Amino acid sequence: KQEVTQIPAALSVPEGENLVLNCSFTDSAIYNLQWFRQDPGKGLTSLLLIQSSQREQTSGRLNASLDKSSGRSTLYIAASQPGDSATYLCAVSLTRGKLIFGQGTELSVKP
Amino acid sequence: EAQVTQNPRYLITVTGKKLTVTCSQNMNHEYMSWYRQDPGLGLRQIYYSMNVEVTDKGDVPEGYKVSRKEKRNFPLILESPSPNQTSLYFCASSLPSAPSGSGYPYNEQFFGPGTRLTVL
């Protein structure tokens, strides 16, 4: 059964620091991997989607990588800002439509 | 404005009283899905639908029903709610393949604002 793990569960950094969030999955037979952001009391916002044949995706200060063979993905956030404070979730798609989420990393960026 | 809407946003009910949470999207998306989010358990998929009249079970379908009679709507039905269904529920939608026509089977998901359900 596919399991998705995110480490660390919580992270606090000073503003301006570069940081890496980790996501690992147990079954490499995935269609794609998606990173989301969730603000308190709100829904999820899609950040980056990496297809299984891709190695990385970039959007602004965010860069996500995917290594299917090792079952790992990282989300790199450059020059962090207080507005980046949120919970970051990764999710893998196993078959068309079926999605498994990690439990998230709660990020706090201090001014 | 492109969006996914859910109603109600908050609901307190009692055990056994049937309820429906509605989900509607205005983006002409084929794919729609329901999730529940619980502390310590994260987000878990309940049901999903690849298109009209096509639905499939996610990881936690027990106690829930769905229907997809039209593309824009995907209601979640709890025939006999129980306290263990107290949770935060999210609906999501997406196109099934990338806009570039690359044939990838899945695109980014757009989430609704959530429905907080309490079953007493």
Tell me what you see in this structure.
The complex is a heterodimer of chains A (111) and B (120). With 111 residues, chain A is mainly β. Chain A contains no helices and 11 strands. Chain A starts with a strand and ends with a strand. Chain B contains no helices and 11 strands. Chain B is globular, with a radius of gyration of 14 Å. The interface between A and B is medium-sized, with 24 and 31 residues.
Question: Tags for this entry?
Answer:
heterodimer, A: 111 residues, mainly beta, 6-stranded mixed β-sheet, 5-stranded antiparallel β-sheet, globular, B: 120 residues, 7-stranded mixed β-sheet, 4-stranded antiparallel β-sheet
Q: How much is the average pLDDT of chain A?
A: 93
Biggest interface found: A-B, 24 and 31 residues
The coarse silhouette of chain A is globular
Count the E strands of chain B.
Answer: 11
Helix-strand sequence of chain B: EEEEEEEEEEE
Number of helices of chain B: 0
The radius of gyration computed from the alpha-carbon positions of chain B, rounded to a whole number of angstroms, is 14 Å
Largest sheet of chain B: 7 strands, mixed
Number of helices of chain A: 0
The description of the largest β-sheet of chain A is: 6 strands, mixed
Structural class of chain B: mainly beta
Instruction: State the share of residues found in helices of chain B, binned by percent.
Output: under 10%
Number of strands of chain A: 11
Question: How helical, in percent, are the residues of chain A?
Answer: under 10%
Structural class of chain A: mainly beta
Oligomer: heterodimer
